[in-house]
Structures are given as C-alpha cells and as structure tokens.
Amino acid sequence: MPRPVKQTPRRKKKTVKKTSPKSTGFESKLKRIDEDTGGMRFALYGLSGSGKTTVYSTFPKPLLSILSSGCMKPGELKSIDTPENRKTITKLNVKDSSELSEVAEYQRKTGTFATIVVDHLTGLQDQVMKEILGLEELPAQGSWGMAAREDWQTVGLQVKERLREILNLDCKTVLIAQQRTFQGENDGEVLTPLVGPGVTPSIAGWVNHVCDYVCQTYKKQKTITKTIKTRKGEKKKEIEVPGVTYCLRTMPDATYQTKFRVPKEYKQPEMIIDPDYSKIMQVINGEYEC
C-alpha cells in the first residue's frame, strides 16, 4: 500500500498593511496665496503738514499712536484731537526705544488694537542714537559728524529690530516718516534725485522692502473745472482757486519711493484725492474708480 503523500500546509500570506509615510508637518505649512498671512504694513511719508496724521487717523480702531518725536515734545495729534478720536485713539509717548518691545508683547497677549502707528521714524532714529551715544538730547541740527560710522550702523540695526517686532503683529501697522531727498542713481546722463522716508538710506531701503504699501502725502493747489466758451465751442479748463488739495501718491514713480502691492490688472490711480482708509482699501481691492 503506497504511503500517503504528506501535504505541506499552505502558508498564509502575510497581509502587509499599507502605511502612509510619516507626516513631517510640511503640508500644514503650505498655504493658499489668498490666506491671511498677517497684518497689513503701511508706510506714509511726506513734508510736515501734508496730511500724514489725518490719513492714519481714519484707519481701523482701536488705534495706538506711538509718538517718538526725537528731541521735541510730541504735538502730532493736535490735528486730529476731536471728541470722537479721543474715544478710539490712544497715544504712547516713547522715551526709550525698548518700549516698542513692550507694545509688541502687550498686543500679542491681548490683541487690543486694530491698528498700531509709529509716528515718526525720524524721531525713533534720533531716540536710538541718543541711547547709543549716551546723550540726554541730540544737537538741534544733527549731522553725520556727531557719530562714528559704526554708531550709525548700530542705529540702523536697532531701529530695524524695534520696528520688526511691531510689523510682525497680526494687526494693521503704519510707519510714519518725514520726507527726505536722497542722491539718486546716475543713469549715464544725469544724476536723478530720489525722495523717500526721512531716515538713513539703510533704514529707508529696508522700510520700502518690508512694507506692502509705501505712499507719499503732499499738497497741491486747489482747482475747479469750469466750462468756457471759445470760437470753436465750449471747452473745459482747470482754474486755480484759494486753498489746497491733500493727496496721497500711490503709483510707482521714478523720483518718489512709492509702492502698492496689488495685481497688475487692478486700476491704480496716480494719486488719491483727500485720502482716507476706505479709499486706500478700494485701491487694494481693485475697486477704485480712476
């Protein structure tokens, strides 16, 4: 009788669990370009009396105005001292640049303010220079000769560090500066001047880079449009009248440092007449009627 063949039991196939690769957390960092990535950063510069304070007083409230006037007693808010603004605008007279760090820490913890303004950068630069040189006050007519090159470099680094803390906050931030004319670049024929924020070229260049919107405030002669009759018919003509018109320069310019980060297809005016926050937002959203 033949011996029965011993059958080897079939081995069960091991079920291999498909495991997804371990998440590194990288995907969570990817964001759509329309997602909010922080606050909006504005820089406004212009001559004294050109409307900088009036413009930023229209920004969302509550608003904190950090006043840094260098050697002078702050008086910037006199032009907006109204009963309504007293309820919604708070001021802080900075006597030490480290107070900007305190503001940033307070805002991160409480989120109290919708807008924080540093008014103005020229005064903040003077404040930092006083701290570095150990002076109570700076000379009324400051000059490059009052400090060594290394001191000016240190001033630039410290001002940027103080401002970076404010600009990184999740609220709208506005940097105010006086106006200054810089020596421009030589295009091979003429040396063109460049007008921008009244701080050192290093700080001015940095501000223009990190801010989303850089605008110049200025005044021009007020005019009205009149229709006059000529031999060929009626013609419209601009007539100068007493008074001034306040303007905000927004369009890129060969002389004035201006910038508006908006899509190319959006209509962008050369200037905004009687500017305020609502008109600025119309330009940003592509809704401004030129």
Report on this structure.
The chain is α/β, with parallel strands linked by helices and 290 residues long. The protein has a single domain (36-218, 245-284), classed as Rossmann fold (3-Layer(aba) Sandwich), CATH 3.40.50. It has 7 helices and 11 strands. Strands 1, 2, 3, 4, 5, 8, 9, 10 and 11 form a 9-stranded mixed beta sheet that branches. A two-stranded antiparallel ribbon has the order 6-7. Helix 2 (83-88) links the parallel strand 2 and strand 3 (89-93). Helix 3 runs parallel beside helix 5 and helix 5 packs parallel to helix 6. The model has no long low-confidence stretch (mean pLDDT 85).
Summarize the structure.
This protein is α/β, with parallel strands linked by helices. Helices cover 25% and strands 26% of the residues. Strands 1, 2, 3, 4, 5, 8, 9, 10 and 11 form a nine-stranded mixed beta sheet that branches. Strands 6-7 form a two-stranded antiparallel ribbon.
